[in-house]
Amino acid sequence: MDTQTCRSTVVAGEGAGGPYGGMFSIRLHFAVLAALCLSACSTGPDRRAEVLARIAAEEAAPAVVVTDETIGAIESRIEMPPGARPLAEYDRYYSGVRLSGREGVQGVLLLRRWFGDINRDGVAPVEGMANVYRGGADALPIVSDGGCAVVTLYFDLAAQEFVELHREGLSVERARAVCNGVA
């Protein structure tokens, strides 16, 4: 719960008309809500230090290199999600990323007939691979929705396997690549 939500909840005095009514109820509810909000809104210094150290270590780590061979391995093994078009109909963008400290590749596949004219600043075509581009994670296209016109995937370099992602909505079913809005 964020600080603003805590303040709003406490100031509003939710539950002021409780079973005891009057000022006692307001004070009791205020005290209980204040205690709950303060405990939910704070994170211990050890946890903050741990998170900051992890972020600093990942930022200091060398960039993840995505080779032509890695892209070839990904493309030869990808299973398009249900509802997606064949791989050849997509422009494919790949970038090196860190996945919980492990080296990996993020792939964003855009259906060419819908997104063929997007700006490709920051990515370069991969020689010998039609419609395949490579660049930094900050240069990958970002599309907030698009159904299966946008497919997302992650590949773990050390394990040489796809990171399974949850499919649509609240499904517990997992897949190697998912339509956008899921990952």
Tally of discrete structural domains:
2
The helix count comes to 5
Mean pLDDT: 74
Helix/strand-derived class?
alpha+beta
Binned strand content: 15-25%
Low-confidence region ranges = 1-40
Major sheet characteristics: 7 strands, mixed
Shape: globular
The number of E-state strands comes to 9
As a whole number of angstroms, the C-alpha radius of gyration is: 23 Å
Model description:
The protein is an alpha+beta fold and 183 residues long. It is built from 5 helices and 9 strands, in the order ααααββαβββββββ. α1 packs antiparallel against α2. The two termini are 23 Å apart. 17% of the residues are buried. The N terminus is likely disordered.
Outline the fold blueprint.
Layout (H helix, E strand, L loop, with lengths): L2 H10 L9 H20 L3 H16 L7 H10 L12 E10 L2 E10 H4 L7 E3 L6 E4 L14 E7 L4 E2 L2 E2 L7 E2 L1 E3 L4
Parallel strand pairs: 1-4
Antiparallel strand pairs: 1-2, 2-5, 3-4, 5-6, 5-9, 7-8
Question: Which terms would index this structure?
Answer:
single chain, 183 residues, alpha+beta, two-stranded antiparallel sheet
Question: How do you describe this structure in short?
Answer:
With 183 residues, the protein is α+β, with helices and mostly antiparallel strands. It is built from 5 helices and 9 strands; from the N terminus they run ααααββαβββββββ.
